[in-house]
Design brief:
The complex is a heterodimer of chains A (227) and B (532). Chain A is α+β, with helices and mostly antiparallel strands. Chain A has ten helices and five strands; from the N terminus they run ββαβββααααααααα. A five-stranded mixed sheet of chain A has the order 2-1-5-3-4, with helices on one face. In chain A, β3 and β4 form a beta hairpin. The longest helix of chain A is centred in the C-terminal third of the chain and has 16 residues. By secondary structure, chain B is an alpha/beta fold. Chain B contains 17 helices and 22 strands. Chain B is globular and about 70 Å long. The chains are: A alpha+beta (227), B alpha/beta (532).
Chain lengths: 227, 532
């Protein structure tokens, strides 16, 4: 007999086998998921979930697909949370402090309660990355927020009504496009391809791929592999 | 620590042999050895897992049984009940699927001034692109070239890919990386801007670009942000369930279904792009999968019913390193980047049994052989698996490497008490990718006029096996390409008239006549995991 645990899905009690995740426990209970289920591997943030163990005061944020069930777990999924995403033209904005003030002025209302960090399903230091955003330090904000899956649990807990994942998204794009060093060899190669310097040899390879397959096979099987 | 004590004991053997295994450079297999290994152990060669199609354009060809059931399944549309004369949506380019390919397609369509619209059965970004961990290939280093990339990809795909598609893939690769970088994607770089690149299985140059081990997530969230910034309409939680044609047999829209209310809607379009992704959730041969919840081969069904041809739909990619233990993440992807960084595959005796960076099909077959014929696998309650010696990464490159380069893997196993910096992990092949799909040309055209395909649903780019990092690349290169050509075509196309679903009725008749008609509803849309 499997070891069964009692859990509460939206307040209703179900008995499910231990070892399941919250997501597979819901399916065991009979839920056919449309909302609140995405990659099932911890990357997409679709299955944001809040839980509390009966008798304890602490609320936990988690991803349903990545969290093993516990006895007496009270579960409420958060399949959608209204984050505020401000639109902008990435080509026209600049990575200065001004842009954050314009697009996400509410970040300056942060009261430092750290509820966002406590709720983060990825264990990120959310309040810290908001502090970096406030100061216009987008490279640091980008690094600190990099593993964010944009599930929105942080924002659901924020008394200052900040949409943290969207703030971080803007910071990462600014960093990726404007602040991180440009790649010289990439521009050079793009230029070479536009000039057509590989065209003739490419045409030969393609012709051989049809007409003399053995030659291509030999080239492949004897090619030098970089150490 | 593992909850099963025996595994902790066995892991000690791996640790003991780590110093000697670390310096070992295992021999690569010869072409003949690889062929023999694949024929005996690769799942694609198990004849009884395939069915010969009785109807449609690929009639007479063998296809995985689960896919054949859907291709020859029952339409969700009752043609007599649908009014096509008064569409709910009207657009130039209808893009079905909101993953990496669909989003790239939408952005390029927007760039050339076409009205594009995305319909997606879940949310934009709910896609295999989001889950790609390891990286994206592009030959942009001085010691590399698109020509070398061509040979790697064409050879890795067993010389079966369409040359025009491989050319497109490798030639547009550097531009794709630059395009993403200019959108703000954060690639791993040295302080001077040089891309940090590694090997993937079957690459002859280090051309794997990455964003830690969130490469696909970083690309996908950036594309999604850009689609929203541009105000491109995204109709979410809405699936396409049939392609609509006009009186001349040209693709002219799709029948849609709201996933929650089941309301049926009609979208009319001048051109249609299928970008619905893969099929891992069909669990071919009972394998677990690394794929997204929505990876149910919908696009193959939609395309097949209007007469678009399938190419290499009988070849699947089983990623060699799916999670073999614990059960909560069974089948989840362990990125190939773990091996790119130096971790080796080890059997129960602590022996390195192969070169860790053979192509994926060869590596998967080799692991299966180790666990079956050679009986050198490690047994758990979930079946057999082999070790992937992750601590070897820090043994070679120093402490901190794992947290910096593969934080998602550290987190995924950490949640179940396994510290991959100190303990090796258990892996076994998982269903990962469909190598084939709807056949396209280098303009992403299928054989049906005004119907395009891009991303994992398309076939011919990778031949019979895809290399790591060529899929993220493919969704960007061919997604953009589809956006450009489908928009161009839309500009020269009038608003379609006399829309029809007669092809659905015709296909139904063909199924009935050949005696294979069934009650299996298709497309599947979502797998059925709820316990009855």
């Amino acid at each position: 007999m499997e070891n069964m645990l009692d859990i509460y899905l939206f307040g209703k009690k179900y008995s499910v086998p231990s070892g399941l995740t919250i997501m597979t426990a819901m399916e065991y209970a009979g839920y056919e998921l449309v909302r609140g289920c995405g990659c099932r591997n911890g990357f997409c943030g679709a299955c944001a979930t809040i839980y509390r163990i009966k008798g304890e005061s602490q609320l936990h944020g988690c991803l349903a697909c990545q969290t093993e069930i516990q006895e007496n777990m009270y579960v409420a999924t958060l399949p959608f949370f209204p984050l505020e995403k401000r639109v902008y033209n990435i080509e026209e904005i600049k990575p200065d402090q001004q842009i954050m003030m314009q697009l996400y002025p509410e970040i300056y209302s942060c009261i430092g309660c750290n509820a966002c960090t406590k709720a983060c399903t990825q264990e990120l230091n959310v309040m810290q990355y908001i502090a970096y955003a406030q100061r216009g330090e987008y490279d640091k904000c980008a690094e600190e927020s990099f593993d964010c899956v944009m599930c929105g649990v942080c924002s659901s807990r924020c008394p200052a009504e900040i949409s943290h994942p969207q703030v971080a998204m803007l910071a990462r794009r600014l960093n990726g496009k404007y602040i991180a060093p440009e790649c010289g060899h990439l521009s050079e190669r793009v230029g070479e391809i536009k000039e057509g310097i590989f065209d003739e040899k490419m045409a030969e390879l393609m012709a051989k791929s049809v007409d003399s397959l053995q030659e291509i096979k030999d080239m492949y099987n004897s090619r030098e592999i970089e150490k | 620590m593992y909850k099963i004590e025996k595994l902790n004991e066995l892991a000690k053997k791996v640790a003991e042999k780590r110093p000697e295994n670390a310096v070992l450079e295992p021999r690569r297999m010869t072409a003949e050895e690889k062929d023999a290994l694949l024929a005996e152990f690769h799942p694609d060669y198990k004849q009884d897992e395939f069915t010969v199609l009785s109807a449609g354009v690929n009639k007479g060809e063998k296809i995985p049984t689960q896919l054949a059931d859907l291709l020859q399944g029952k339409s969700r549309v009752d043609v007599s009940k649908i009014d096509l004369s008064n569409p709910d949506y009207d657009t130039d380019v209808l893009i079905i699927g909101g993953g990496g390919a669909g989003s790239s397609c939408a952005i390029e369509a927007d760039n050339v001034g076409a009205r594009a619209m995305i319909v997606t059965k879940l949310r934009i970004g709910d896609a295999n692109t989001m889950m790609a961990e390891g990286g994206i290939q592009a030959a942009d280093k001085p010691n590399d070239s698109p020509l070398i990339h061509y040979i790697d990809a064409f050879g890795g795909g067993h010389f079966a890919a369409k040359p025009e598609l491989v050319k497109k893939l490798v030639t547009d690769a550097p531009d794709a990386i630059q395009w993403l970088n200019k959108l703000g994607v954060e690639f791993d770089k040295e302080p001077d801007g040089t891309m940090i690149t590694t090997h993937g299985g079957g690459t002859s140059r280090k051309r794997m670009h990455a964003c830690k081990d969130y490469s696909g997530a970083e690309i996908m969230r950036t594309l999604r942000d850009e689609v929203i910034n541009r105000g491109i309409p995204v109709v979410d939680f809405t699936s396409a369930i049939e392609i609509i044609l006009d009186e001349n047999g040209k693709a002219s829209g799709a029948v849609l279904m709201n996933m929650e209310t089941k309301e049926i809607l009609v979208a009319r379009a001048k051109t249609v792009v299928i970008a619905t992704g893969g099929a891992g959730r069909l669990h071919y041969q009972g394998f677990p999968t690394s794929n997204h919840y929505g990876a149910t081969a919908d696009g193959l069904i939609l395309g097949y019913r209007v007469g678009a041809k399938l190419l290499y739909a009988d070849t699947l990619q089983y990623h060699p390193t799916g999670t073999g233990y614990p059960e909560q993440i069974f089948g989840a992807l362990v990125t190939e980047k773990v091996r790119s960084l130096g971790a080796k595959l080890v059997n129960i005796d602590g022996e390195v049994f192969m070169h860790p960076l053979e192509t994926r099909d060869v590596t998967a077959a080799s692991i299966i052989r180790e666990c079956t014929a050679r009986d050198k696998g490690i047994e758990t309650n979930l079946g057999k698996a082999v070790w992937l010696d992750t601590p070897m990464i820090e043994y070679k490159h120093g402490e901190g490497t794992i947290e910096k380069r593969i934080p998602a893997m550290l987190r995924m196993f950490g949640k179940y008490g396994i510290d991959i910096r100190k303990e090796p992990i258990l892996v076994y092949p998982t269903l990962h990718y469909q190598n084939g799909g709807l056949e396209i040309n280098d303009r992403c055209e299928t054989g049906v006029e005004n119907l395009y395909a891009c991303g994992e649903v398309a076939g011919g780019i990778h031949g019979r096996n895809r290399l790591m990092g060529n899929s993220l690349l493919d969704v960007i290169v061919f997604g953009r390409n589809a956006g450009i050509y489908a928009s161009e075509k839309a500009k020269n196309t009038d608003i379609p008239e006399n829309l029809t679903l007669a092809h659905v009725e015709k296909f139904n008749r063909e199924l009935a006549e050949t005696g294979v008609a069934s009650d299996v509803l298709s497309p599947m849309l979502l797998p059925k995991y709820a316990r009855k």
